[in-house]
Design goal:
The complex is a heterodimer of chains A (182) and B (76).
Chain A: H1 3-30, H2 37-59, H3 63-88, E1 98-99, E2 102-103, H4 104-123, H5 127-130, H6 132-135, H7 142-165
Antiparallel strand pairs in A: 1-2
Helix pairs in contact in A: 1-2, 1-7, 2-3, 2-4, 2-7, 3-4
Chain B: H1 2-22, H2 29-42, H3 46-67
The chains are: A mainly alpha (182), B mainly alpha (76).
């Protein structure tokens, strides 16, 4: 795999992660599903996982950047696994709406697993690291668009969380935006 | 010796989590740290970006420690 092809795949991966964050955002805005504290941490996990791909886009593919993605996906996956375990007990219900039969925290766990598998697969191709410095350059073209979208979604989640939780911890079962309450 | 260090590190993490809980740590910190890190990537500051990512990850883990049992109404 050439460094250039690796960059394209990284851009595609970052676009996919932006899609995940955008989907969660759309559900929050259009369906009024406020994210719970653990849901917010899962979103942060996706943002942290995309960080490694963004590093690859700017500085060229490096194993350490893939490690960033894997570590973040494991952290985010652990949060979603914990939330699944919390609701596995009969009578504890669930949080939020289901999508295609699975709740968002279950999807988050599946996607975190896929991120780890995909990133580990990318690490199998050594050739991408040989001339990685040559492709390290200021972002341009499609990479700027993808990077900008991802940065915007990360920042947007920060603003949304601030509106929902104010300057502290989120309530366990949020029903309203704390900062927008009259 | 090594297990004693692990225990000490774990106690320090628990203390940090308690301090954060008492001082009302902002749930938004991971996003601010990551957004600042993305800005660092844009400007070509790799080490700063990695440091900010580390700060974001630490915040995620501390907040996870605080919220791990939130649905059950328990405190660890």
């Amino acid at each position: 795999m050439t460094p250039l092809l690796s960059l394209r795949l990284n851009a595609l991966g970052l676009l996919a992660l932006s899609g995940v964050l955008a989907f969660a955002f759309a559900d929050q805005i259009f369906h009024g599903d406020l994210p719970c504290p653990l849901c917010i941490l899962q979103r942060a996990g996706f943002a942290a996982a995309g960080f490694g791909l963004a590093l690859n886009l700017r500085f060229g593919p490096r194993p350490s950047h893939y490690a960033v993605t894997i570590l973040a996906a494991v952290a985010g996956g652990s949060v979603s696994l914990r939330q699944m375990a919390l609701h596995i007990v009969p009578g504890t219900g669930s949080y939020g709406d289901a999508f295609m039969g699975l709740h968002f925290y279950t999807w988050a766990f599946v996607l975190s697993g896929l991120i780890v598998i995909g990133t580990a697969t990318m690490l199998l191709f050594d050739r991408q690291f040989r001339d990685a410095e040559k492709v390290a350059a200021p972002l341009s073209g499609l990479a700027v668009v993808v990077f900008g979208l991802f940065a915007l979604l990360t920042l947007g989640n920060g603003v949304s969380t601030l509106l929902e939780c104010g300057g502290g911890l989120c309530p366990d079962n949020p029903t309203d935006y704390l900062l927008l309450k009259k | 010796m090594r297990s004693a260090r692990v225990v000490t590190f774990w106690r320090q993490c628990v203390t940090l989590a308690q301090i954060c809980r008492e001082s009302r740590i902002m749930m938004t910190i991971p996003f601010w740290a990551l957004a600042a890190g993305l800005a660092a990537i844009w400007f070509g500051k790799r080490n700063l970006a990695l440091a900010l990512w580390g700060a974001g990850m630490a915040a995620i883990l501390v907040l996870f420690r605080i919220h791990a049992t939130s649905q059950l109404g328990l405190g660890l």
